[in-house]
Design goal:
elongated; five-stranded antiparallel sheet
């Protein structure tokens, strides 16, 4: 029994010593962790302070730049006001200065500006009066509505395909003497096969206002003879070049840049466009032609509207 009791005592002693060693290790590690945390906090404070110092310096520099920009803008504004005749009134800091004197100066400035504006207005009226006869002539030419107002040219079809969103429309690229070909939408799908349009020369109306047709902007119109059963593209005379002007016998060619849709110019002209007995395209019986080249013909449609 005595040896056994001695062993138990030794065992509990060793166990107690091990627990003390573990506890001491835990305490030591906790102290080291606390020291590390404290050190990290100190370093963080140093970094934060350095960042704040740097940021303050950056903000001061930005404020200086902004102040310089504001001053420059003020100077530019003052220079513009001086150029436009606005008199500059300085701020008087002297206590003896009277506010009434400044108030008296303001009406004088306003009177000077008003006088200057009156002179400009009088000069503008004189200029308008001198130019008035020209404006009257331009107005007279605008009031004349005939085929001369149409910008008709030779166009050369460079590419043709079906409209992606409209079964009855072609989308064509047509050269008419400009830097880039114009996009044209035309309802010829049911009447003219696509292969007959490729590389074909046509009579093109170029001064209609561009209009969207199912999402595609059309910039001109192909002139055709038509009846209820058929549509035929007018054929130019041989040897025509894209961009050549189309004329009408007995009428002066003086086309609008773009015809104003509100004035219904084309709508007033189109009832007098038709083919004659010899298949020639005409306006009020006068045929269309390209000087030195010949006239425009329909393939089979006589005495039919052209549009």
């Amino acid at each position: 029994m005595l040896p056994i009791l001695g062993l138990k005592k030794n065992f509990f002693y060793l166990l107690n010593m091990s627990a003390k060693v573990v506890l001491e290790n835990v305490k030591r590690q906790a102290n080291e962790a606390q020291k590390t945390i404290t050190q990290l906090k100190d370093e963080l404070e140093i970094i934060t302070e350095a960042y704040n110092t740097l940021r303050c310096h950056q903000l001061r520099e930005e404020n200086k730049k902004l102040l310089l920009a504001v001053e420059a803008t003020k100077k530019n504004l003052v220079n513009l006001e001086i150029k436009n005749g606005v008199k500059q009134v300085g701020i008087v800091l002297n206590k003896s200065a009277k506010i009434s004197d400044t108030c008296k100066e303001i009406p004088k400035q306003q009177a000077a500006v008003a006088e200057k504006n009156e002179k400009k207005s009088a000069s503008k009226k004189k200029t308008e009066q001198v130019a008035k006869p020209k404006n009257d002539n331009a107005k007279d030419s605008e009031e004349i509505i005939d085929v001369g107002r149409l910008d008709l040219r030779i166009g050369k079809i460079e590419h043709v395909k079906k409209h992606p969103d409209a079964d009855s429309l072609y989308v064509l690229k047509i050269s008419c003497g400009e830097d880039q070909p114009r996009t044209v939408c035309s309802g010829l799908v049911k009447f003219v096969p696509i292969e007959q349009l490729e590389n074909k020369s046509v009579m093109l109306l170029c001064n209609l206002k561009p209009a969207k047709m199912r999402g595609v902007t059309s910039e001109a119109m192909i002139m055709c003879a038509s009846c209820s059963e058929a549509i035929e593209v007018l054929s130019p005379p041989p040897g025509c070049i894209a961009g050549e002007a189309v004329h009408c016998e007995g009428y002066t060619r003086n086309p609008d840049l773009i015809m104003n849709p509100k004035k219904k110019i084309f709508e007033a002209i189109v009832p007098d466009l038709a083919t004659n007995e010899t298949l020639e395209a005409c306006y009020k019986g006068a045929p269309f032609y390209v000087p030195g080249k010949g006239k425009f013909l329909s393939l089979t449609l006589k005495n039919c509207p052209v549009k």
